[in-house]
């Protein structure tokens, strides 16, 4: 497995731990629908939280959350709709991004961006 894949997995695990420590219940990780994948689906306060985890080893070129393009948003929204239908969920949905970057001491830091985008942004 390539180093960036390992780092991505570490970031997803770190994000899941962060969410759990902050009162979120993880419903599923790496939910796939067609070619789309949702990194984490969680629940808190009767909301379904769709979480895209973005990790970078540096922010020299762009912040991790800037890598979530309109195409990626459409893909996430499509997979989220499928999840809601498949599991008969009628909760309100929120889309979050968790970015993971190393700080100057190489410690990984999390930036949790709640309500990062709306399903309407995909249009």
If you consult CATH, what is the topology?
Trna Endonuclease, Chain: A, domain 1
Radius of gyration: 14 Å
| Largest beta-sheet characterization | 5 strands, mixed
Q: Report the mean per-residue pLDDT as an integer.
A: 88
Gross geometry: globular
Total helical elements: 2
Question: What share of residues are in beta strands?
Answer: 35-45%
Q: Please identify the top-level CATH class.
A: Alpha Beta
Q: How many DSSP-defined strands?
A: 5
InterPro entries: Restrct_endonuc-II-like, tRNA_endonuc-like_dom_sf, UPF0102_YraN-like
Organism: Chryseobacterium panacisoli
GO molecular function, one term: nucleic acid binding
Family: Belongs to the UPF0102 family.
Summarize the helices and strands and which ones pair or pack.
Elements: H1 3-21, E1 25-33, E2 36-44, E3 47-55, H2 70-86, E4 92-102, E5 108-117
Parallel strand pairs: 3-4
Antiparallel strand pairs: 1-2, 2-3, 4-5
Structure description:
The termini are far apart. The chain has a five-stranded mixed β-sheet. With 123 residues, it is an alpha+beta fold. It is built from two helices and five strands. It has one domain: Trna Endonuclease, Chain: A, domain 1. This is UPF0102 protein FW781_20335. It holds the Pfam family UPF0102. GO terms for molecular function: nucleic acid binding.
Relevant terms:
single chain; 123 residues; alpha+beta; Trna Endonuclease, Chain: A, domain 1; five-stranded mixed β-sheet; 5 strands
Summarize the structure.
With 123 residues, the protein is α+β, with helices and mostly antiparallel strands.
